[in-house]
Write a structure and sequence with these properties.
Helix content is about 80%, strand content about 0%. It is mainly α. The relative contact order is 0.17.
Length: about 400
Amino acid sequence: MSEKNIQLGLKENWKQFTLLLIVNAFVGGMVGLERTILPELAEKEFLVISTSVILSFIIVFGVVKAITNYFTGVLANRVGRKNLLIIGWIIAIPIPFILMYAQHWNWVIFANVLLGINQGLTWSSTVVMKIDLVGEKHRGLAMGLNESFGYFSIALVAFTTGWIASEYGLRPYPFYQGVGFVVLGLLMSIFFIKDTAKHVASETKKNTIKPLKNIFWETTWKDQNLGSISQAGFVNNLNDGMIWGVLPIILASKGFNLKNISIIVAVYPAIWGIGQLVTGKLSDHYNKKMMLFIGMAIQGLALIFMFWATSYLQFIILSSLLGAGTAIVYPTFLSAIASFTNPNQRAQSIGTFRLWRDLGYAFGALLTIIITQFFDVDITIIAIGILTVISSIIIKIRMS
């Protein structure tokens, strides 16, 4: 297709957009494999009971994914979005087999190195390609759909792995799903996904946003809008990293069984995923600053109240609120970053934002380890809840 025939828009590119949504559901499924049962696997199969050792897999995943996000952004224009997507799936091939057959916890850590690279390459590529396809008008809706499919898939697979593990044991059956995700994701990326370089070139000709002088530093902090979004993304994933690592442990200590834990843990990304179908579209029409402020504040308060929760119903309600707050901010982060940057710099600016956002996973796990050295594990929820409220205040004060 020549550049003259290129059209931007959701309706005009619905076939490619739909295929990218399906691929992103498989990408999310790879994370969902670990979401519920890895702490249990550490204790039962590898006799690892230290919180710091259990959370090591999240630290490794967060750091590797964050760095890969950045380089995916840098390389997107040079190597091509589709090529990076294919490379991401090739790297994922050993992951489910390692999780099924590993005889030592270090192999699980290595699987998370591969998972971090896989997620950085595949998720970043699908995000940027969807933004390339739809143009400015439907950017929030596009991100809402993208993140919705990805995170609902995480929730669904988090639930199915917990259910399969409770019925058939922790290994190998829950991880069979991962083999299917890798095969389908790789085949679709090779044979059906098309690169979006021509869409970028077409949009660049009409775009009037001034290029950033230093994409990395301005996206990180110097630009008051981009910097505000990056710090909020960092704190958002900081609290997500903590929830991933310690919520199953806290729930088990309160006497909940594995089925109930898997439902409570899955409700949060499920609401997060489904909610973005609505919030993504809202971010195309409503004030992005206000949406980010409200979403971060809801998350912070939900986390703080979790400290006092005792019943199954209370945890379900607070997990739902946490998911709702995250649903409000997640597509808004990406559509706002895209709207403040020139199309030629978009991939690198999003890559920088995603670098800081996903480093939040690692810092959340590290902060949890530090806090649990001195206090009960429950205290982590209050500490990270307060940090999330502070992040919402920074958005309120600094973003224009």
